[in-house]
Amino acid sequence: MASVITVGSQKGGVGKSTTVLNLGYSLSRLGRRVLLVDADPQSGMSIASNLSRRAASGLVQILRGDADPLAAVTFARDRTLAGLNTGIVELEDAFFLEHACRNGGLASIFRALDASFDYVLIDAPAGVGSIVHGLLAASHGAILVVRCQTILIKSLPIFLKAVQYARQTANPQLSLTGALMTMRDPKDALDEQLSRELQESFPASVFFKAQIPLDPVYEIASQRAVPVARLRSALEGARTAAQAYMDLALEFRERDEASHAGGAGDEDTEGLF
Q: Where are the beta strands (DSSP E) in the chain?
């Protein structure tokens, strides 16, 4: 059964779509079968991966019964990575998607794709609207993307409350997979201070140890519609930027496997037998 993970944020412009694309690609390099789902009406992830040009159908067409879930999926060349876009063409499609999410139409789609993938990573729209609630109701976990700016940090509890609300009202199995700090600039004193204060405000397990640096090479990769790891290694910063997401993929995989094993960690283990 695939692990369905919604990647969200309270505010836009924090690297959410970049994270879905690059985390998914890194997991596929580790041998996992990964489906990237663009559920954001702005279609950032689809544009950043060229999916919007290749896919004729998406979530909207599946929800309307006009397309089969697996047939609407577009596979990359090596078949370990695939994408599913929103299918939004007209404004009415966006309204339809909101309505379908509000009425719980997403869970059946993910169940239909379950056997074909190990991970389903969903790029959610920013905020906590009906689409986000519908995604959380159909997911096993959520990744919160955070940038260390005062106004963004102050909005952090809103998204955490949205996860809690979805768990209480629609999906008791939902958990917070982790919070990811993006666009980190260690040379910025305020950035470092906010990062430290934020991590001290929550249990250590909330935040991923991996952090994503502030680097223009991610924008270059987006312009070329590829994950940063697909850029030529000679391009300055490409290798370091790609390694940040590989580190995240390794940590994410460990957390996911631990959760499927019942959540036992080293502190719970007294011995092999």
A: 3-8, 34-38, 74-75, 81-84, 119-123, 141-147, 175-182
